[in-house]
């Protein structure tokens, strides 16, 4: 089933073209790793899908319907989004932040139901944050806050989950916990699209990689198809060695000194 189709998408911000001719589709259960150099447009693409940026041209369809024709609440039942910046300025308990993910399932004056409690608790258990439920979000570490915001997205219980660098503040234990949780969700039919900078983890946990360069899709394919030495050289300007890791059985990328560019670091 086609969960998302993006057709000839162009996005300009303040008259500057950021995304051009973006075209791809995403099927149910896929875990798409959005990769590409700094400034290539990854966050802009996710924000545009989350309707935070105006579409200059083209179409994004979610479950066959143009995202611009959805009412906000309807779309929030289909798509949850966790931004790169997880700063929260209000003194909420962590569990209250996770409960916010449930708002889309209730009218404004409706009280919380038992199922909201279970969705909140389950999301916090899955992300190893249940012990932080009563803590103020202001007193959590950056990594703990990132996990709580992931829990909020899980509590929202949408078929499509969009995450901007969901493991950027996490130690290696929690990186693997989160990525294997997302993989299990993918196996259960959730569709996930996330920005990752770590190409090795992207190769290991994503079913497909979408490579952006200068606001355009350079390639969409399996990790084997996308992570090729010449493609990485052209996109990142870095010489790499790519091979299959015999422990994880996934592609692994080793960046090497780029002799041609005479870089000064070693
Ligand atoms: N609100 C904005 N106003 C003006 N320019 C913007 C805005 N947001 C992003 N840009 C520009 O759009 C381009 C793409 O930015 P974006 O954040 O999407 O890149 P990215 O691939 O997510 O980068 P990174 O890997 O560094 O997070 C950059 O040149 C950036 O300066």
TrEMBL record:
Coiled-coil blocks: none
UniProt GO MF annotations: ATP binding; ATP hydrolysis activity
ABC transporter domain: residues covered: 4-239
InterPro entries: AAA+_ATPase, ABC_transporter-like_ATP-bd, ABC_transporter-like_CS, P-loop_NTPase
Keywords noted in UniProt: ATP-binding, Nucleotide-binding, Translocase, Transport
Signal peptide residues on this chain, from the entry's feature table: none
PANTHER family: HEMIN IMPORT ATP-BINDING PROTEIN HMUV
Designated name of the protein: Iron complex transport system ATP-binding protein
Lineage start: Bacteria, Bacillati, Bacillota, Bacilli, Bacillales
């Amino acid at each position: 089933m086609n969960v998302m189709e993006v057709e000839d998408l162009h996005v300009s911000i303040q008259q500057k073209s950021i995304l051009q001719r973006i075209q791809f589709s995403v099927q149910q259960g896929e875990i798409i790793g959005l990769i590409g150099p700094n400034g290539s447009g990854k966050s802009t693409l996710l924000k545009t899908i989350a309707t935070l940026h105006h579409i200059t041209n083209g179409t994004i369809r979610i479950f066959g319907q143009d995202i611009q024709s959805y009412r906000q609440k309807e779309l929030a039942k289909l798509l949850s989004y966790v931004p790169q910046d997880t700063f929260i300025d209000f003194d909420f308990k962590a569990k209250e932040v996770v409960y916010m993910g449930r708002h889309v399932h209730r009218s404004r004056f409706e009280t919380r139901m038992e199922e909201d409690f279970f969705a909140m608790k389950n999301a916090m258990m899955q992300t190893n944050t249940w012990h932080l439920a009563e803590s103020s979000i202001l007193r959590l570490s950056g990594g703990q806050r990132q996990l709580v915001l992931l829990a909020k997205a899980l509590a929202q219980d949408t078929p499509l989950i969009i995450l901007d660098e969901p493991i950027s503040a996490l130690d290696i234990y929690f990186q693997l916990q989160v990525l294997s949780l997302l993989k299990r969700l993918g196996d259960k039919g959730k569709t996930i699209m996330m920005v990752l900078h770590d190409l090795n983890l992207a190769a290991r946990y994503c079913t497909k990689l979408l490579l952006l360069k200068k606001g355009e899709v350079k390639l969409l394919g399996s990790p084997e198809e996308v992570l090729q030495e010449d493609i990485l050289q052209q996109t990142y300007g870095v010489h790499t060695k790519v091979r299959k890791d015999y422990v994880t059985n996934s592609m692994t990328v080793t960046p090497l000194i780029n002799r041609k560019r005479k870089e000064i670091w070693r």
